[in-house]
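Predicting holo structure, heme C bound.
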Amino acid sequence: MQKATLPLQRRFLVLLLSLVALGWGGYLLLGQLSPPDPYAQAVFSAAGSAERGQSIFETNCGVCHGLRGQGNIGPSLYHVSKRKSTQALIQQVVSGRTPPMPQFQPQPQEMADLLSYLETL
Ligand code: HEC
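Done. Tokens:
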């Protein structure tokens, strides 16, 4: 009895270990493709208001991009949300990687509001 069931248990163990390894590999791969970004996650989970976003925009971005986003020193932002992903828009605002555009540090709620406004342009 013992001799007959043991190989079966061993096969089951191998199967279980393979599944664990597969799951772990998949988890690592997914993690590489979309690294967890707590800030972006907080922005995504906030409900944005285009109205609030507009006033944030007029105060912080209007000088360069025009009060209505039509462009000035900075490029026009009309239809920018169709050209760029939400993630790219967030990066553009918080990274400071494209001077002279400064690095902004909006609260997740403010960023969500800004994104909602950018989507109306
Ligand atoms: C000091 C001027 C300045 C300010 C202030 C500024 N920007 Fe910019 N912005 C720029 C310039 C210049 C570029 C072009 C950068 C490049 O691609 O080299 C740009 C690019 C962008 C882009 C990418 C446009 C595209 O077509 O890819 C977005 C989106 C953007 N800005 C949003 C904002 C938002 C939102 C704010 C306010 C929170 C802001 N900017 C404030 C100057 C500014």
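The two ends are 74 Å apart (CA to CA).
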